[in-house]
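Hi support team,

I've been running sequence recovery on a batch of backbones for a student project. Most finish fine, but this one hangs at about 90% for roughly twenty minutes before it completes. I'm not sure whether the input is malformed or the queue is just slow. I've pasted the structure tokens below so you can try to reproduce it. Let me know if you need the job ID as well.

Thanks,
M.K.
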């Protein structure tokens, strides 16, 4: 018994060593400017010791530190993707139905490994991954593999299978009664709470609930879970210290989600002035996923010009209405619907829809960290936080597209891409 424990400890130490730099290694970063999560500072330097930021400011020196010169760059906190699906790949490659029905979990996991690497190299050092869409609990294993340094990737908050009302999700269109693989775990009534607890026990950091959906293809979206189901599920998640993300695109689905006390609403295209006011009052964050709508419209033949498809207009209008109501905006594109590593697409669309670049930059760093309750570890450049840092050419607080020009990515104090 004692030997087994010792071996486990040894194994943990060895794998941790592979993922983290020596505790006393010193690195001094010298970019042109530093965005600390809130403000821009010209001439700042950042000192990293081991896996942490130990100092940030203009008059920092450190004897014996390895100096990394980053001229003409802006150093920003590691970017935080608010809504990803590492286990999906773009629908113009393979439809969602075919991914869920015909791709094995092994194949999907290998794809997810490459998706995780692409995400990290794009400067996204953290993702909130909102459901494997039929790939079971494979996200928990991927997260562990990344944490142990087996494969490169962002730190992950995972939702595992996600939860849908019985019969509400897909794939659909089969003989009634025949068991068909589903994109999420089905539950109704008290079963919803059981599903929440099962998923948390299996490793869920965040619980994803579907408040509405199309009951049948071609129909309008309608509520799926009752308000009582949403309330019970949310309470069970909160008891366990997990936050709740609600997929909701209809006014009624959003209303029920807000009443149930969820933490974030995903998509929210059907939000009205009253709904967004309620979100503001209750502190519910909106993840507008503009890039998913944009991508799907393009897959259906839109060339990006006029006339703009109604669904794209609707997503932009709800985003503007939410901002007008001062709702906290999460930066999260539903990446996976479009290519991993293209995460900046959502940020560009946010700026195009009227959000100043500096606010977009805050959304994807400090604001996302606060919304996901990880701001005690990441999301800012400040002594004591983990050294997740990205250097990009140019100034993304003026033009968010600058985030595409990645010069260096550091995660946990270790340079992972240059
Ligand atoms: Zn999604």
């Amino acid at each position: 018994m004692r030997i087994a424990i010792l071996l486990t400890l040894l194994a943990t130490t060895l794998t941790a060593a592979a993922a983290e730099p020596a505790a006393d290694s010193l690195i001094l970063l010298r970019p042109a400017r530093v965005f600390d999560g809130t403000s821009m500072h010209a001439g700042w330097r950042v000192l990293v010791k081991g896996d942490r930021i130990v100092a940030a400011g203009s008059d920092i020196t450190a004897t014996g530190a390895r100096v990394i010169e980053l001229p003409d760059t802006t150093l920003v906190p590691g970017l935080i993707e608010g809504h990803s699906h590492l286990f999906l790949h773009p629908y113009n490659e393979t439809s969602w139905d075919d991914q869920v029905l015909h791709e094995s979990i092994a194949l999907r996991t290998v794809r997810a490994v490459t998706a995780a690497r692409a995400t990290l190299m794009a400067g996204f050092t953290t993702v909130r991954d909102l459901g494997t869409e039929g790939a079971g609990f494979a996200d928990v294993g991927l997260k562990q593999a990344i944490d142990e340094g087996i494969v490169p990737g962002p730190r992950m908050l995972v939702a595992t299978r996600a939860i849908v009302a019985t019969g509400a999700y897909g794939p659909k269109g089969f003989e009634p009664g025949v068991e068909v693989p589903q994109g999420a775990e089905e539950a109704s009534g008290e079963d919803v709470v059981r599903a929440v607890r099962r998923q948390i026990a299996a490793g869920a950091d965040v619980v994803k609930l579907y408040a509405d959906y199309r009951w049948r293809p071609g129909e309008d979206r309608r509520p799926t879970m009752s308000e009582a189901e949403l309330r019970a599920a949310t309470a069970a998640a909160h008891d366990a210290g997990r936050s709740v993300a609600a997929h909701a695109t209809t006014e009624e689905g959003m209303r029920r989600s807000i009443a149930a006390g969820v933490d974030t609403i995903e998509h929210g295209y059907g939000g009205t002035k009253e709904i967004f006011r309620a979100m503001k009052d209750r502190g519910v964050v909106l993840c507008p996923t503009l890039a998913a709508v944009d991508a799907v419209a393009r897959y259906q033949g839109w060339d990006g010009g006029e006339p703009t498809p109604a669904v794209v207009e609707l997503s932009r209008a709800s985003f503007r209405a939410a901002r007008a109501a001062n709702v906290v905006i999460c930066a999260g594109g539903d990446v996976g619907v479009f290519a991993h590593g293209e995460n900046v697409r959502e940020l560009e669309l946010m700026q195009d829809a009227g959000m100043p670049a500096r606010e977009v930059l805050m959304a994807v760093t400090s604001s996302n960290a606060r919304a996901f309750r990880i701001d005690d570890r990441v999301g800012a450049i400040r002594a004591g936080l983990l050294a997740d840092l990205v250097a990009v050419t140019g100034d993304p607080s003026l033009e968010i597209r600058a985030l595409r020009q990645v010069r260096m990515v550091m995660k946990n104090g270790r340079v992972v891409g240059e």
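--
Follow-up from support: It reproduced on our side and the slowdown came from queue contention, not your input. The longest helix spans residues 2-19. No action needed from you.
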